[in-house]
Amino acid sequence: MREGPDIARIASLVGDPARANMLNALMGGTALTASELALEAGVSLPTASSHLGKLMEGGLLTVASQGRHRYYGLAGPQVAGMIEAITGVAEAVGPKRVRPGPRDGAMRVARVCYDHLAGEQAVAMLDRLVAKNVLVRDEQEIRLGPSAASHFAAIGIDVYTKPRRPVCRACLDWSVRRSHLAGTLGAAILEKILAEKWARREKDSRAVIFSPPGRQAFERVFLS
Amino acid sequence: MREGPDIARIASLVGDPARANMLNALMGGTALTASELALEAGVSLPTASSHLGKLMEGGLLTVASQGRHRYYGLAGPQVAGMIEAITGVAEAVGPKRVRPGPRDGAMRVARVCYDHLAGEQAVAMLDRLVAKNVLVRDEQEIRLGPSAASHFAAIGIDVYTKPRRPVCRACLDWSVRRSHLAGTLGAAILEKILAEKWARREKDSRAVIFSPPGRQAFERVFLS
DNA sequence: CGCATAGTTCGTTCCTCATCGAAGCGTTCT
DNA sequence: AGAACGCTTCGATGAGGAACGAACTATGCG
């Protein structure tokens, strides 16, 4: 009955679980591809595409086509602010969850994020690689350092194998609120971790469980 | 897939047009009854009751029972802030409507708000009544002034006829962002306006159209 | 008590919209 | 060119939920 801006239209866009997950994933500021968002939301690609279309039409998203990839990002700080506000209310009225406590401890420590490792372990690893100057952090971007090629070759990872995708990318970690390493290099490292059987994936979950010796090996290689 | 506060749940509560209208109506800060909100949202009472139940369960509303009335209000400033944020986005991305222009001119000038008059005419009327000290504004409340009884009696309105409901109440006008007069007195005045045929109601709309002589009469009685 | 008003609950109907498989485009790599 | 990949469009299916009428509870009035 009332006139005025169509707040129901906007709110209902955020009101779908799949779309909410996508928006949440984009809150890190990094633009993501449709496939990544589909995984993030837990829906198929066609479904994700449909959702993205609606979010675009609603003006909540922008898109940048790069080759055959389409990078979706939040339309602006105002949209991000709105999501923050909604999150605040949801937190306030939501089930009084125990303080940052170990809701799902394993997930906080290490988990899969698309095709690479996320969680405390992943954040620590990126920190260490940057500290050792193997990787160079430059604002939003991450680049290979001078010793990167030899450093990773020693571990059995060729940083130049799949040049199609960006080799490195920063990806914001929801549990730690800091970045971890994505891109082909991040994917290769996760692949190695699983191939060496340092860790196994929890069934039907994104959690990654390290075995005690596996953890030692990982720390020796990436955190020393 | 992502953990975290259930933002979709909250957003979907706001995402229904009926509920959005209710929340919008409550943004004025005045608590309203279920019937008033049903009218505001343009739905039947049972439907409104169901919506209110959901908003309560979601923690967005509080309720205060007074006799057989139940006054619903926003749960707090955080909720109001969230609605503001959503409204901001909706305004920004919405159809670039012409500046406050006469979207529906008649509605801005005068319309029905539940059982009383709203719009520019109503706001002007309340201003004038307060200026003449017939009514006394005291913060949120409006009370009868010393000359109120005689003043309204002269027009043929008995301010003491229906003591069940508050005689006066402030109601925020969405188009002008200022208050107009609600309560039994507000209702009685609207009744008189229609009874005297100073104005007629637009079919299927809340607009109230004054005839030229009717407008003069109204201005003589209430705006002089 | 009986009647009126305010609100909720129940049950049914109906429609929107999320979902996915299959197929269709455009890009990139070999 | 052909194959692989990223993404969108189309069509069919299905479930959730918004809507209202009717019946029920609760409060107030005479």
Structure description:
The structure is a homodimer of 224-residue chains. Chain A is α+β, with helices and mostly antiparallel strands and 224 residues long. Chain A has 2 domains: 7-93, Winged helix-like DNA-binding domain superfamily/Winged helix DNA-binding domain (Arc Repressor Mutant, subunit A, Orthogonal Bundle), CATH 1.10.10.10; 105-222, no CATH class. The first copy, chain A, is 47% helix and 19% strand. Chain A has 10 helices and 11 strands. In chain A, the strands form 5 sheets. The first copy, chain A, has a 3-stranded antiparallel beta sheet. Chain A has a two-stranded antiparallel ribbon with strand order 4-5. In chain A, strand 10 and strand 11 (208-210) form a beta hairpin. Chain A is globular, with a radius of gyration of 19 Å. Chain A starts with 6 loop residues before the first helix and ends with a helix. Mean pLDDT of chain A is 80; it is low at 98-103. At the A-B interface, helix 1, helix 2, helix 3 and helix 5 of A face helix 1, helix 2, helix 3 and helix 5 of B. Chain A binds a DNA duplex (30 and 30 nucleotides) through helix 4.
Q: What are the SSEs and their pairings?
A:
2 copies of one chain form a homodimer.
Chain A: H1 7-14, H2 17-26, E1 32-33, H3 34-41, H4 45-57, E2 61-66, E3 69-74, H5 77-93, H6 105-109, E4 111-113, E5 116-118, H7 120-131, E6 135-138, E7 141-144, H8 148-155, E8 169-172, E9 179-182, H9 183-195, E10 199-201, E11 208-210, H10 212-222
Antiparallel strand pairs in A: 1-3, 2-3, 4-5, 6-7, 8-9, 10-11
The structure holds a DNA duplex (30 and 30 nucleotides).
